[in-house]
Amino acid sequence: xxxxxxxxxxxxxxxxxxxxxxxxxxxxxxxxxxxxxxxxxxxxxxxxxxxxxxxxxxxxxxxxxxxxxxxxxxxxxxxxxxxxxxxxxxxxxxxxxxxxxxxxxxxxxxxxxxxxxxxxxxxxxxxxxxxxxxxxxxxxxxxxxxxxxxxxxxxxxxxxxxxxxxxxxxxxxxxxxxxxxxxxxxxxxxxxxxxxxxxxxxxxxxxxxxxxxxxxxxxxxxxxxxxxxxxxxxxxxxxxxxxxxxxxxxxxxxxxxxxxxxxxxxxxxxxxxxxxxxxxxxxxxxxxxxxxxxxxxxxxxxxxxxxxxxxxxxxxxxxxxxxxxxxxxxxxxxxxxxxxxxxxxxxxxxxxxxxxxxxxxxxxxxxxxxxxxxxxxxxxxxxxxxxxxxxxxxxxx
Length: 397
Ligand code: ADP
Prior knowledge:
Layout: H1 3-18, E1 22-27, E2 32-35, H2 37-43, H3 54-58, H4 64-76, E3 81-88, E4 94-105, E5 111-120, H5 122-175, H6 184-215, E6 224-227, H7 228-238, H8 240-245, E7 250-253, E8 259-262, H9 264-281, E9 287-294, E10 297-303, H10 336-346, E11 350-356, E12 360-368, H11 379-385
Helix pairs in contact: 5-6, 7-9, 9-10
């Protein structure tokens, strides 16, 4: 090399060491003859060491086949190539690089050198991957929303269609002057039927509203001191008509007052949901409702002897829209247990199911007894919740 070409090479090397990219040069035989400083800094290989195929060894094994294939193709065609791959750094961590190679040929058209650069594109690549994941998640959320919307419209339509039919039938009876169809007894039955459909619509709409509150973090709890046993009895008694229609005899076991600070309205909602499920999936068999305390916790359980839930579905059914039955056999949105779990979680409690397919299910709600022992429990609550016996125990926290 002449003095001036030495100087030019020196300048090129300085430039090569200034830019952030890795640069390498290889000869016609494919042996690397030069790496800039960035290569040694990144890989941790001792400075100046030109190990044969060091670059290949730093490549991620998963990316190696594609890079080799592209390199061989480019070599055969005396062409340049561009390829993304991961390179192992001195800390043994891989980062994404964009590799580019150009070939230099002599006058006879033979390849004399190859110049390569590798540009760190790790951040862009990870962002790209995250964007792709988000896109997939979004698509899945849209798919679930569409399925939900079609089920929800079907569910809302069922009671509406039934109400509409009833209205048309009555209209016809009026037009035909059949006044005996509107006797007091018949009117009572008509109203009961309408009320049932309106209840169903209200429950569906309430569930949907709760779901949107949960999604936006607006489902807030308003704890108040009350007697869980009394609530359990009141709600179960209020459910008597539904239980009768479903031909499910009910046994209740909530004799002892259980005072605690919880959101009564929301816990009522949980119990109504469990009772409603027990009647729908309970195959007209007996239902057992219990409330009791154990240690620092209060418990409510609803046991049925109906269709039961296979083991593999038992945790899934507490997720949004998840069901273990087919929509054609049993109507429902798969929201009740999800909302129940959100409510119980907000109370720092737990909701569990113990079930065997074909033998029935027991849903158990566990709530922390988060009140001090009350020397003077509120008179109003006690007057209608304390059993008559004198040894009735006011629960201890
Ligand atoms: P829905 O009953 O409207 O589908 P839920 O969230 O209340 O929604 O229940 C989710 C699923 O859990 C139901 O679809 C059903 O498969 C199952 N399930 C809930 N309760 C019972 C029960 N008592 N017996 C059998 N299966 C039940």
